[in-house]
């Protein structure tokens, strides 16, 4: 019963070659033992047992239980903790998803945030999920380089980072997890758990804000507790997920211990360090400085995969510190000579940690408690920019074609490819060294790849020829394999990173087609609305007879085009042939879509040469907002780019009707729909500040001006401005709808128990929800114009619900019921919200939770005589909703003769050692945990007698 296990995790590394029929892995448990309270037990832990089997629970025959010996332990890593590693080599039967788990009695005693107490009676359990698939190629789990034992101080911010490193270059993500005990078939069962900041009444953060917080950054892995209140032991767990090409391919659970002390000491601080993005081949020299305001002596260390020769060949990083452990201000120098071998998609995480020790001002060094601070720096290594890209027109049987040539590339990495991109315009691209490659939405498409040692490519559009007269733009990017991957490995280019895009090589041919540049609303009216359409003329010879034909359709997506103008032109410079004012429109109710056809004279006849892409007017509409605010949204379906720009919002000055004052400049991102919420504050002071108080039932008028560009140096003006119509709306329209009142149809457990066969044959269970929408709430009228209901579900109480359905039966009335089908059990929690015509969502309804109708019935006799009839003692029919159980059998003198955790028991009348038991009566006890809406279900005990007949 010695208590000694503090923390641990399981990692795995493939050692058989990719493509081999054997899936052989080295599996390692890294465990951390308490040498203060359980030294004897820790020293005696010479081996451990791994349970290995499919993630989907099956019969115990599918599991392997393998003993792993201990390697030489590291006696003391600090904080009275020893690190022990246990390793085996194991060959999996086939590809698939496997769980590797470890369990052992006992944990430390007096852990404050897990239970039930005493915690020395809880076993320690961790697991790792490993995905083995030929489509993944080489794969190993991340390794966690930072020990999971640190001292935290009452009232001071605590930070831990596992220092996870993935040698395959896979992406890592982090999330909190509930510490577990062992279940059946190698699975785990959640312990009673509270986040450490919730064990006692929440205090405050180190900076004095309330309440204290506890969280984990899903990207960096920083686990931050700001700040502890009560000293003692705390255990938390988290998952490190491994992602490749958008799919999760494995996960590690780390269960760790935080030791909180009343330190009477201030933690040291590392000065902030920016993330680093460098071209491969760059020598990094980054100083790291830490200080201690108490004058304590500091030790500055660093960890990460960049220091491991087995992980980062050929050149590893170095971290040097002068006068280590002798000063209260200390500086280290991180150096790393990067190379082409280090290029990868994911950044390298380098952890820096500072620890204090008693300085000259400490009166009693024996009572000193060391504290730490740490920070993680992300280092992105990208490929050098390709150089010398040029294009040349060539004769080709397919028609128009271009030969691309470039300089030999610097990084001749085996398996790397040069990707060729093309766009149909000369295009300026912003360069971001932290985001190499071609940015999404730039207009470039990949048209081919060649090996990295090639310096030429022929573009004839796949044998179909290119369009004549188009200004094709080309760029090239080098794509690298994942670290350690080899040519031919599945997905070897996934996760390998890219180079910066080359400089543009553009043909820069004269534009032979007009291009629409403006569709702007000049006047808003139901009958006298005005829209101005502008375009640029093609670069053709002056005097060439030509004609424009302008077409219009109602609606931004309108396709029913009608010709509204014919403009003859000879393209004489200065001729007014690039503008049309469209009048007598209903711009208040409608948006309009335009296109322009271009005709040239061929053989004395006007002939259609081409037509432009369509361009719509800007449409302004109301959006959801809080009371005393006005929400706006606007769209424009145009061939130019309105995103990544600053749009302008105007509000009518009621003191000067018809005069609009600019109140905001809105940075927008998405390609089409943009939003803004007006709280009455004028956020643009250059034209005067006009603030208003937005009140219910008052009307406010707005218009917006979009700002966009073709990002094409041939199209002038380069920046395009277009107004929406004027929209006048009332703030009362933004009121949120009221929350519905939800109910669940009750379960008839007696009826279900009367037909237990349903539990064996059901393809899934169904919960029937219904709700009512109130007419008023707390004395206010509820918005009657509800257009939809949203149904949310959480498997357990306290979990964040997720949206599972949006319910509506247009046009009226709305459906107010929903069947949640295909469930594995009835247990779960629900709430419903209402959504009005502006997209405003109500507060949640009442939350309704449901538990199952558990059924577990045992017989009172069985006959293990080998006649295949009633040979095993097991529950009737199918045991319903059993999460786990512990079953024990005693003879009439009270001696235990058999035990199991098998949900179906399957007792064959023998002892656990295989000895047949005599006929007679036996007493049993069963402790059952049923599936529930609570994460930690309440155990149910059953006791009885069974007659064993032979």
UniProtKB/TrEMBL annotation:
One Pfam family it belongs to: CHU_C
Check the record and name the InterPro entries matching this protein. FN3_sf, Ig-like_fold, T9SS_type_B
The UniProt entry, under Gene3D superfamilies, shows: 2.60.40.4070, Immunoglobulins
The molecule here is called: Gliding motility-associated C-terminal domain-containing protein
Q: Which organism is it from?
A: Dyadobacter endophyticus
Q: Which domain of life is it from?
A: Bacteria
């Amino acid at each position: 019963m010695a208590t000694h296990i503090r923390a641990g995790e399981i990692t795995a590394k493939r050692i058989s070659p990719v493509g081999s029929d054997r899936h052989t892995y080295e599996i390692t448990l890294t465990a951390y033992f308490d040498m203060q309270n359980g030294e004897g037990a820790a020293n005696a832990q010479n081996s451990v047992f791994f349970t290995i089997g499919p993630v989907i629970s099956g019969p115990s025959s599918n599991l392997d239980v393998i003993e792993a010996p201990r390697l030489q332990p590291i006696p003391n890593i600090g904080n009275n903790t020893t690190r022990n590693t246990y390793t085996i080599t194991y060959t999996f039967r086939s590809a698939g998803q496997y769980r590797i788990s470890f369990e052992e009695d006992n944990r430390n005693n007096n852990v404050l945030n897990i239970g039930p107490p005493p915690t020395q009676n809880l076993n320690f359990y961790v697991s790792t999920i490993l995905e083995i698939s030929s489509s993944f190629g080489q794969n190993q789990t991340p390794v966690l380089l930072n020990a999971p034992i640190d001292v935290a101080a009452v009232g001071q911010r605590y930070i831990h980072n596992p220092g996870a490193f993935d040698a395959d270059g896979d992406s890592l993500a982090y999330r909190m997890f509930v510490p577990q005990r062992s279940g059946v078939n190698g699975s785990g069962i959640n312990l009673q758990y509270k986040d450490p900041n919730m064990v006692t009444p929440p205090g405050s953060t180190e900076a004095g804000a309330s309440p204290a917080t506890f969280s984990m950054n899903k990207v960096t892995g920083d686990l931050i507790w700001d700040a502890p209140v009560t000293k003692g032991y705390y255990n938390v767990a988290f998952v490190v997920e491994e992602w490749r090409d958008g799919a999760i391919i494995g996960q590690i659970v780390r269960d760790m211990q935080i030791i909180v002390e009343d330190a009477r000491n201030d933690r040291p601080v590392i000065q902030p360090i920016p993330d680093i993005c460098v071209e491969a081949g760059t020598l990094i020299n980054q100083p790291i400085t830490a200080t201690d305001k108490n004058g304590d002596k500091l030790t500055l260390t660093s960890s990460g995969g960049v220091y491991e020769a087995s992980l980062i060949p050929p050149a590893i990083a170095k971290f040097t510190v002068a006068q280590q452990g002798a000063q209260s201000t200390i500086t280290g120098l991180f150096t790393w000579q990067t190379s082409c071998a280090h290029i990868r998609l994911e950044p390298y995480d380098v952890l820096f940690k500072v620890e204090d020790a008693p300085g000259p001002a400490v009166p009693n060094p024996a009572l000193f408690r060391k504290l730490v601070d740490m920070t993680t720096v992300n280092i992105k290594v990208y490929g050098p920019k390709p150089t010398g890209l040029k294009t040349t027109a060539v004769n080709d049987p397919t028609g128009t074609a271009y030969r691309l040539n470039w300089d030999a590339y610097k990084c001749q990495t085996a398996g790397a490819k040069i990707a060729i991109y093309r766009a149909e315009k000369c295009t300026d691209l912003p360069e971001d060294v932290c985001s190499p490659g071609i940015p999404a939405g730039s207009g470039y498409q990949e048209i081919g790849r060649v090996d990295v040692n090639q310096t030429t490519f022929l573009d004839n559009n796949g044998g179909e020829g290119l369009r004549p007269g188009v200004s094709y733009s080309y760029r090239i990017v080098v794509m690298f394999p994942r670290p350690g991957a080899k040519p031919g490995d599945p997905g070897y280019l996934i996760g390998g990173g890219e180079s910066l895009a080359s400089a543009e090589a553009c043909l820069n041919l004269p534009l032979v087609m007009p291009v629409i540049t403006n569709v702007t609303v000049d006047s808003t009216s139901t009958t006298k609305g005005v829209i101005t359409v502008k375009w640029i003329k093609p670069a053709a010879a002056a005097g060439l007879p030509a004609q424009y034909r302008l077409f219009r359709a109602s609606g931004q997506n309108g396709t029913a085009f009608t010709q509204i103008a014919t403009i003859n032109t000879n393209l004489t410079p200065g001729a007014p042939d690039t503008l049309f004012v469209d009048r007598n429109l209903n711009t208040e109710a409608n948006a309009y879509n335009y296109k322009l056809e271009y005709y040239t004279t061929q053989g004395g006849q006007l002939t259609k040469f081409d037509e432009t892409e369509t361009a719509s007017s800007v449409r302004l509409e109301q959006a959801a907002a809080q009371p005393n605010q006005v929400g706006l949204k606007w769209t424009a379906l145009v061939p130019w780019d309105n995103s990544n720009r600053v749009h302008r919002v105007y509000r009518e000055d009621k003191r000067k009707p018809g005069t609009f004052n600019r109140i905001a400049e809105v940075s927008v991102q998405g390609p089409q729909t943009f939003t803004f919420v007006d709280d009455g504050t004028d956020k643009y002071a250059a034209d005067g500040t006009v603030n208003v108080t937005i009140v219910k039932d008052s009307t406010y008028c707005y218009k917006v001006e979009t700002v966009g560009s073709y990002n094409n140096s041939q199209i002038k003006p380069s920046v395009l401005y277009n107004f929406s119509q004027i929209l006048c709306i009332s703030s009362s329209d933004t009121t949120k709808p009221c929350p519905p009142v939800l109910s669940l149809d009750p379960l008839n457990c007696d009826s279900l128990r009367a037909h237990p066969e349903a539990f064996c044959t059901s393809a899934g269970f169904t919960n029937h929800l219904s709700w009512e929408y109130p007419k008023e709430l707390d004395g206010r009228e509820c918005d009657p114009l509800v257009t939809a209901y949203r149904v949310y579900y959480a498997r357990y109480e306290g979990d964040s619900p997720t949206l599972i359905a949006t319910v509506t039966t247009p046009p009226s009335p709305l459906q107010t019921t929903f069947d949640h089908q295909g469930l594995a059990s009835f247990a779960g929690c629900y709430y419903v919200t209402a959504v009005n015509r502006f997209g405003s969502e109500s507060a949640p309804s009442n939350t309704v939770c449901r538990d199952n109708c558990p059924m577990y019935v045992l017989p009172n006799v069985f006959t293990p005589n080998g006649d295949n009839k009633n040979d095993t003692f097991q529950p009737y029919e199918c045991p319903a909703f059993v999460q786990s159980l512990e079953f024990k059998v005693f003879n009439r003198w009270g001696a235990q003769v058999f035990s199991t955790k098998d949900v179906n028991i399957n007792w064959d009348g023998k002892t656990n050692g295989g000895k047949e038991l005599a006929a007679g009566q036996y007493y049993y006890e069963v402790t059952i945990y049923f599936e529930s809406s609570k994460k930690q279900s309440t155990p149910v005990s059953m006791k009885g007698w069974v007659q064993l007949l032979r």
